[in-house]
């Protein structure tokens, strides 16, 4: 319960950061952030509808699809983010912080990447194309930030074509690129490590790890070279984001366990992504 409260607070903070980035850096220069928020900004610039209302309406079908394809916990947290961003964009006043559009695009990209990264770290997303990126990333081993960059390219082309102003389009592209890079830096779920565990509590350790994450675990017969004592060793591959929970579980289950953690460059075969 406490962990869920912390996650929700983290998502709300990240969503407020996204709202600040939109109203303080993007909207004053008619820049875009990409994704659903970018489409909402286009609608706000060229129609009488508010950015917040369009943002919420466009996210609804993706949230419904994500409910069935990604997981209920992920979507509930994403709903929290979408609702908070909607309220933040509605009530945070639009004010120009930087007069240079390129500088505004840079800082907006950093803030949106931070906000979205906080949401992903907490187990949710900022909605929109983040949900599509999460779906693809769970079934294909591709960094989620790169997926979002690719999905957002069409939004940049749209603003350049509609306004016939490619300076705005290119500045928006800078924002989207920086957002993706910051998100990749924070959300490290595509990076993997191999964990070797030597323990005398094999059944308890196996059960604890299976409850923690949906990964395969290999049991290997081993013996000490000096003592000659027979022992079993467990091997599993996890994401770097999951590593902290794995280490805490190992220490809690067997404080005397010997653990070796090594960087994994690539995984071939069935590496099952965790579904919330």
The DSSP helix count reads 10
Total count of domains: 2
- State which percent range the strand residues make up: 5-15%
Categorize the overall geometry: elongated
Work out the helicity level: 55-70%
Can you describe this structure?
The chain is α+β, with helices and mostly antiparallel strands. The mean pLDDT is 82. The longest helix has 25 residues, at 2-26. A four-stranded antiparallel sheet has the order 2-3-1-4. The chain folds into two domains: 2-186, no CATH class; 192-264, Alpha-Beta Plaits. The chain is elongated. The two termini are 16 Å apart. Helix content is 63%, strand content 12%. The protein has helices spanning 2-26, 35-46, 51-69, 72-91, 101-121, 129-139, 144-163, 166-186, 202-212, 240-253; strands spanning 192-199, 217-223, 230-239, 258-264. Helix 1 (2-26) runs antiparallel to helix 5 (101-121) and helix 3 runs parallel beside helix 6 (129-139). It contains ten helices and four strands; from the N terminus they run ααααααααβαββαβ. A hairpin with a 6-residue loop joins strand 2 (217-223) and strand 3.
Notable characteristics:
alpha+beta, Alpha-Beta Plaits, 276 residues, 4 strands, 2 domains, 12% strand, elongated
Question: What is the secondary structure topology, with strand pairs?
Answer:
Blueprint: H1 2-26, H2 35-46, H3 51-69, H4 72-91, H5 101-121, H6 129-139, H7 144-163, H8 166-186, E1 192-199, H9 202-212, E2 217-223, E3 230-239, H10 240-253, E4 258-264
Antiparallel strand pairs: 1-3, 1-4, 2-3
